[in-house]
Amino acid sequence: METDEVSIREQLFHNRVRETIICVLLFTCLYMVCYLILTHFKKTAEFVTDDIEDATVNKIALWLCTFTLSVAVCAVLLLPISILSNEVLLTFPHSYYMQWLNGSLIHGLWNLVFLFSNLSLVFLMPFAYFFTESEGFAGSKKGVMARVYEAVVLLILLTLLVLGIVWVASALLHDNVARKSLYDLWEYYLPYLYSGISLFGVLLLLLCTPFGLSRMFSVTGSLLVKPRLLEDIEDTFSCTVFEEDSLCRKLNCGSPSCWAKLNMEAMRKEYQAVQSRRVALEMRRKASPWQRNLGYPLAMLMLLALTVMCVLMVCFNVLELLLDEAAMPRGMEDPHLGMASFSMFGSLGAAVQVVLILYLMVSSVVGFYSSPLFYGLMPRVKDTNLTQIIANCVSLLILSSALPVFSRTLGITRFDLLGDFGRYNWLGNFYIVFLYNMLFAGLTSASLTKTVTWAVQRELICAFGLNRLPLTVSRSTIPCKLLLASGLSKIQ
Q: Are 68 and 118 a contacting pair, CB within 8 Å?
């Protein structure tokens, strides 16, 4: 009997050690990748200065930002890893090499991501910002530790302020919970704070994702070579080269008598626009016929298929919410991996769920940086200061930590939320979940319709050469006969 107890304890110990090693290896790899990404965007002048103190402070803040970004990437990968792990265990149920992949590992990974995401959002990122902006208290000895003391004091004051605001809000909404939270901070107070943060993140995803889904078409189109059926590439490229050479001679002309009255700044902007157009035309000339005529349509069709699939799945989830209470998002303690697939279409459906989750995350990031409110946060290569890096890491962490709740609320996946992700108070409210699904479907459909109609109109105008008309001519007043004649003359 004692031998059995010892063997069980040893097995539990070995399982815990194995799970710890796997989590450490995964996080280490993500940390190195995120560090390379941040060093690609950071402003080098802030880290190579004559002031050793400022350089040290900036390096410590950069390490904290790298930790936060790696937690954000891990939060994005939570649902894909969980769904794929379940499908792998279904495919190889008795494989010796897959014994390390179990429910305990996945559950522990969810708990670690939840803990580190809240730790980074509430403590590490505010501390990094205060640390970079602090100079030490007046009269104290200057140095790194003086900055640490000031940053810690400011962080404590900020924490007390936030906790006081949340306690007042909980007292106004739930008086009993607010009273209990004074005695039991962990059970009542912090979950309420986490629910507010998650609700803000999910609402931010609701605003950014539909806009990002419509922007994905233009962003992808700028990276690919667009086909032009009614345009002679060689002729257009020659005209663009001549125009670029002409503008270049005018800019380099040293005779003040001829060009004194010209607006050189406007000419310089025009020269840059012509140069970028020439580079795009040169790329199209070098592209193969398959890439020029088939790559762009296939990419657009794939984006359209993914977007339509997301809308259809959300609409189907709305019907399930009306008919079945089991469609509501909820938490679970034991994931029970390897028992059944989380998609009615098996492994293929699970793979589609993973692709849709990653596609929604990319679209939300594109929509976030494309919105006028957050456009200034977009990082620039080798020209992003540390304050912008901190703001970007906080924004990406908020979006990524809300992604599992976002995907489960919309019905993209049937994988229930693990750990503390399922303890949010608003998840059990039918009206919030139903209204959220309806808003997402409506906003995405409206954005998609507007994007497709405007894209078709723009491509038709460019194809028939109507974009070269003078600005005084209204395109809406152009008769249909002139439009057809222009197209036929280009074909001939």
A: no
Q: 331: which strand partners? A: 417
Element of type H or E holding 90: helix 78-91
Rounded Cα gap, residues 422 and 408, in angstroms: 10
Per-residue DSSP letter, 226: P
What is the Cα–Cα distance from 239 to 274, expressed in whole angstroms? 10
Tens of pLDDT along 108-158? 888 888 888 888 988 899 999 998 888 877 777 777 888 888 889 999 998
| Cβ neighbours for 301, distance < 8 A, ≥ 6 positions apart | none
For residue range 56-79, list pLDDT tens digits in order: 888 999 999 999 999 999 999 988
Q: Could you tell me whether strands 331-332 and 417-418 are parallel, antiparallel, or unpaired per DSSP bridges?
A: parallel
If DSSP codes are grouped into helix, strand and coil, which group holds residue 385? coil
Nearest to 87 by CA among 347, 339, 405, 322: 347
Residue 170 near residue 176 (C-beta atoms within 8 A): no
Give CA separation, 425 vs 28, 345, 460, in Å: 33, 32, 50
Alpha-carbon Rg for the chain, nearest whole angstrom, is: 28
Element (H, E) at 417: strand 417-418
DSSP 8-state class, residue 492:
-
Of 222, 219, 221, 223, the C-alpha closest to 366 is 219
Q: Are the CB atoms for 49 and 123 separated by under 8 Å?
A: no
| Cβ atoms of 337 and 429 closer than 8 Å | no
Reference 456, options 234, 304, 310; nearest CA is: 304
Please state, for a pLDDT cut of 90, what percent of the chain lies above it.
Answer: 16
What is the model's pLDDT at position 230?
A: 53
Both structure tokens of 96: 């010796």
Q: Are 210 and 444 in contact (CB under 8 A)?
A: yes
**Which pLDDT does position 25 carry in this prediction?**
93
Tokens matching residue 15: 């399982």
Distance CA 79, CA 421 (A): 12
331 contacts 422 by C-beta, under 8 angstroms: yes
Question: For residue 301, how far is the Cα from the chain centroid?
Answer: 22
Instruction: Give residues with Cβ within 8 angstroms of 462, minimum separation 6.
Output: 228, 231
pTM of the model: 0.81
E strand or H helix at 418: strand 417-418
Q: CA–CA separation, 391 vs 19, rounded Å?
A: 32
Q: Three-class SS string for 332-366?
A: ECCCCCCCCCCCCCHHHHHHHHHHHHHHHHHHHHH
